[in-house]
Amino acid sequence: MSLYNLIVVPLSVISGLWIPCTLLCCIPWVQKQMLYLHWVTLFPGKWLTEPERAGFLKNQVATFGIASEDGERLFAWLIAPLGVYSRHVDQFIQESPLPDDIERRVTFRLLKEDPETRLVIYFHGNTATVAQGRRTEEYRTYSSGASDKIFVLAFDYRGFGKSTGTPSESGLLNDAEAVVDWALHTAGIPPERIVFLGHSLGTAVATGIMHRYADLTRPIEFAGLILCASFTNTGSAFSSYAIADVLPDWFRRRFKDTWRTDQRLASLAKRCERLQLVLVHAENDGTMPWDQTEELFKATLRAATEEVGPKLKVVDLGEAGKQEVWRQGTRSISKLIAKHGGKDALNRVDTGFTSDRRITQPHKHGNTQAPSHKNRHITMPALHATLTARDLFPTTANTSVTPKAILLIVFVAVIPVLLVAGLVSWLLCCYGRDRKSSRRRNPAEEKGKENPSSAPQIPQKDAEIAGFLRPSPIPHNPYSRETQGVPMVPERALRRNDTVGSERSGRSVGEKSEAMPRDFV
């Protein structure tokens, strides 16, 4: 295969697919499907309603629903810490939970009655549900850390899992507000004991809801904000999937859900007097480049201080990475860039802050023990969240696409591009085949085409293979050496002999010849 076919044809095919897909992403409905991926469900419904399948102890997770102001129903998990479970193990095991009656659950009662409890509200990324395998590993890590006072509240956004509705930026922020209001008013947890922890897409949701509460007439500040594998905005997030990092600026401006985390963090840095921000990322993250977190860190620092080169405390964590911390009064902004881990990877980490507690509970096949969580596989962001949570003590643009623009994109850009790309690809493939066949053509055949009289004879063997034989009309000669069957002669030879015989006898070609060789084969 020529170099032309190896390079030009694949590039033409890729271009013909990539350009139309990029243009299609300008349509809001397509944007939602690509950004949220809420239609991708990796686990069946039983994983949602039966958390024990994901490795939790009996009734350690309370499943319930939260209603949003616009009428959507959100599915949520409330996870009790392992230390609290060990002290009330009999109550958890003997509990007979009722669906959606969260206020009568042991987990809820222990969360509300203990004035020292801490609540981590987890905002997951796109795709799947709260029961996705890696997420459940994180829940267990947070709830089994050095402090046995940390409860975890995880929920599915609208359109994800068992939650109703369709996702959008305003819709997800309304969902987050409903969950935070439930924690503040129903569970009675003060904001100084609540931490927001976001992962991937959840970093934008967590930042957005904290910004919404900070923008109230009476601002509400929470204990902390932890962002794992964050991104500056939707355009930057999509650029990581672009070919050769090329994404037109006009395409960036046509995102309906922009998720401007960079602007919201800058606003929080200016408004919040007790901002506690932690940014976490991994250098080998293959999905979201870690320089997104680097940009957020620098932009937030510029908004928080007017110093040209703010003083940073650098902590070398060896193979775990490096941490940079900026502190000024009651405000703290830190960045942890790990060398290994990735957005969804698991690492083996040895730490004295993880729990080494074992719990025995009845099982139908005997007693079972909750595994020790020391030297276990945990996610990189989960480790940092555990270390940070132990210090949580009380501290005082319109970018929509119009219908006219959608029709213009579809009928003027997408369809012609598809037709042109298909035509170009077809022409290139045909041109490549013609060049390839011309190189392999036999020179003798070319000469034979120019002078048919000098064309080479087709060998008997080749004629047989090509299927050019037919039964001979000559009667069987008993004196011939061929004693079995009717001999087969090439059709072209018969035509040639008939022509020669006709010329000699003076008859036309169609007349029969009376004289034939006796032993003609």
TrEMBL record:
Q: Which InterPro entries match?
A: AB_hydrolase_fold, Hydrolase_4
Keyword list (alphabetical) reads:
Membrane, Transmembrane, Transmembrane helix
Ranges for region Disordered:
355-376, 437-521
| Ranges of compositional bias, category Basic and acidic residues | 504-521
Task: List the PANTHER family hit by this protein, alphabetically.
Answer: ALPHA/BETA HYDROLASE DOMAIN-CONTAINING PROTEIN (PTHR12277), PROTEIN ABHD13 (PTHR12277:SF81)
Q: What transmembrane ranges does the database entry give?
A: 7-30, 405-431
Q: What is this protein called?
A: Serine aminopeptidase S33 domain-containing protein
Which Pfam family, any one, appears in the UniProt record? Hydrolase_4
Annotated ranges, domain Serine aminopeptidase S33 = 149-302
